[in-house]
UniProtKB/TrEMBL annotation, chain A:
Residues 293-313 are annotated as: Disordered. It comes from Prosthecodimorpha hirschii. Residues 1-29 form the signal peptide. The lineage of its organism: Bacteria, Pseudomonadati, Pseudomonadota, Alphaproteobacteria, Hyphomicrobiales. InterPro entries: AA_ABC_transptr_permease_3TM, AAA+_ATPase, ABC_transporter-like_ATP-bd, ABC_transporter-like_CS, MetI-like, MetI-like_sf, MetN_ABC_transporter-like, P-loop_NTPase. Residues 71-259 form the ABC transmembrane type-1 domain. This is Glutamate/aspartate import permease protein GltK. The complex is composed of two ATP-binding proteins (GltL), two transmembrane proteins (GltJ and GltK) and a solute-binding protein (GltI).
From TrEMBL, chain B:
Transmembrane segments: none annotated. InterPro entries: Solute-binding_3/MltF_N. This is ABC transporter substrate-binding protein. Residues 45-275 form the Solute-binding protein family 3/N-terminal domain. Pfam families: SBP_bac_3. The lineage of its organism: Bacteria, Pseudomonadati, Pseudomonadota, Alphaproteobacteria, Hyphomicrobiales.
Amino acid sequence: MQIWLRRFTGLFSLALILTLMLSACGPDAGTQNTSTLDNLAGGGSITKSGPPPFLLEVWGYFVSGFLWEGAWIAVKITVCAMSAGLLLGLGLALMRLSGLAAVRATAWFYIWVVRGTPQLLQLVFLFDALPELGIKLDPITTAIIGFALNEAAFSAEIIRGGILSVNRNQSIAADSLGMGKFLTLRRIILPQAMRAILPGVSNDTIGMLKLTSIASIVFVNELTFRAQQIVGQNFRFFPVFIAAGAIYLVMTSAISLFQAWLEARYDLETDRTQRKGANLMARLTGGLIGGWDPAPPAEPAPPRAGEDDAPARPMPVPRRQLDEAWLARIAAAADVEAPIGEPFVVARNVQKAYGGREVLAGIDLTVNRGECVVILGPSGSGKSTFLRMINHLEGLDWGEIRVDGHTVGYDYAAGRPRAVRNLAAAKAAARIGMVFQSFNLFGHLTALENVVEAPVRVHGIAPAEAESLARELLSSVGLDAHTEHLPHRLSGGQQQRVAIARALAIKPRLMLFDEPTSALDPELVGEVLNVMRRLAAAGMTMIVVTHEIRFARDVADRVIFMDEGRIIEQGPPEQVIDAPVHERTRRFLRMVEQAGTDDEAMPA
Amino acid sequence: MTAKGWTSAVAFALALGVAGEALAQAPACEPAKLATKYPSLAGKTIKFGADPQTPPYTMRDGADFNKIIGADTDLARAVFDCQGIKYEIFLGGWSGLLPATISGQIDVFWNNLYYTAERAKQVDYVLYMQAGTGALTQAGNPKKIGGLDQTCGTTAAAGLGTVEDAALKKEDEKCKAAGKPGVTVMTYPDLAAGIRLVQTGRADIMMTDLAIVESLAIDNPQTYARAFKILTGFTIGAAVKNGNDELLKAIYEGLVAVQASGGQKAIFQKYKIDPDLQVAAEIKKD
């Protein structure tokens, strides 16, 4: 509970820090000689008392208050301009990724102009041309705005690169959970894009800190300009410039250290358990800056010897069975209108084409509540596309699909299906769980965090309640020992079981499985099918696209065979699998059977 | 004489009398009368811009880097104090000063600014000093360069785009036309960089403002010497944006008073600038 509380207060503290930082960004009287500070300049007295040893002189300038005041101005400009520039850059990056050509073009144009013109001229323009329009900026504000606008253009491209580097299956998974665009961006995409973004942004920060010297053209008295002024007064080039260089080195080293620390935070290779409670920033910001502060386990799971070294081991025997009573409760949920055994998913004349190529040629299908339907068919038969249209991951071209009497995010006012404005909310409200072939677990979140993400962020469940449910679900799929592990630490079978737990956590009314075992090693298939069997037994309405003939025969209430975008044949498994009517079905089954025998014949 | 003629004569006499009285008035500092003499300046803080890396005109005080000193700065202070004008100094790179004056970000540009007809199109001047060009060389003037006409075959440094830069390039052509080795001209972005060229021997001479050269040679006799000097005929002035006439007038009248009291010459002496470089205050527009 307190973890979640911390996470929310984290947002608040981050806002507070940003506000404080930005409130310090105003004009600075210290830039003019109105400063009443006493002389702290070591250099001045040294020049008068005869030439001291060279290093002592350098040290005198290095500790000079006059130079450090300039350094502080450089830091202030850099911090303020980077903060504002990164925010603007994020906006520009999103504009560059927009579906609207005009929005993309606007961002492109801004970046083209700002990146393509000298920054010195931009500063002079801001300072000396804007007064024509009645806008008179003071020197520090000019520098901050000038550097921020420039950084926005550069960081936009870095951030865009980071966003593009995140696997698309991450946003598909978020979409299936009903997470909206911005929630997905904030919670799923950006944290994973950080690894790609950080090095570039750190480069920019160091570059900016050093480049603030060009702002002397608009009367900003920062470090380099001050060093030049001392040289202009006493012509002691080497000691003054060496001291100024050393001050820069101190500041840029601090940035490099901060970069290294941030990179460690966002490094998925680092074991989560090593990071826990280790850093101040995460605690200050509730995990918002310092990465994902995970919920500490009620009882910390001691890593078992060899466990992580051999992630592909067969699953440990589940300690207890999936809570059938709980599943039955979901299956019998009061907010489902259709009675058990009555039509629940109804598809009518569903059509879909990609660029003129027909994928679905009019599918009619009804799935009753509590039924487990398996769809078989060769690759390219359109079965996965159809499955993704049920929860609106893919849009309908024509026809309709109703789940419990409602379309999932469609508006038929214009006669043909059109996505509603708030599609994410419609998807969330439909509560359709989906399990993917490649698991699509959120790579930066632990098993537990993967499971609690949607209940808390989308459905507004109290974090403590969601966490306790998540633990129960993970435990029931045999993963008690792995709640704190990141997906890449888990075997494929374990990942798929986490994915099932994640889908179940939204208390789904319907479960969709898209070839859930196709990416698994043969010995791991069983553990996933086992969980699915128990789900079906509990009365969950399920539509499963798979090549597992045995599963279909044992578990399915009905088997559908699809080919070339059409339903060729359907009926109970003993009919479709054991006595298929159509030649195409027979051919497909023969091929699958052949492949299955080959697999079994192969040495393990 | 007609009635009309009489009135004209009286008016002429009156006008003469008024003018004579004004001319007879000794220029004096009257800081308390600011509001009556220059109403638009009352209660206003004038921003004057300078680049603190141009000794001896504007520079940091070696004993206290937070203080700005120099001949231009001290003269500006004397003039503003004389008129009771409140002011603050804006410190920035020299090349940013003129744009800032024209845009109104600062009110006065008072830092070793030569009068040129081109600049006068956008700013108005109050002239106060004659400019000279000096050539800085290593102590002892090893190549015995005694004038611009003796620079053939040498390496000479000048600020980028300055009048000295142009003069050296012209001299280079002259040398070559006479069948002599030319002048290798090196341009530098800031004064300190130019001085380094002489210090390290990369350049034989550096040509820049005479007062800068002289103060360097006087302060560092072991290192530098003045090779030669040229009085170029340029004049130096404080500049305000076109149309800022009341400020221009206040500066002019203040300067007249400071010059009359010997204040400007004292300041020049303090910074080892030849007092004879002073010229009588003069307003110059385009």
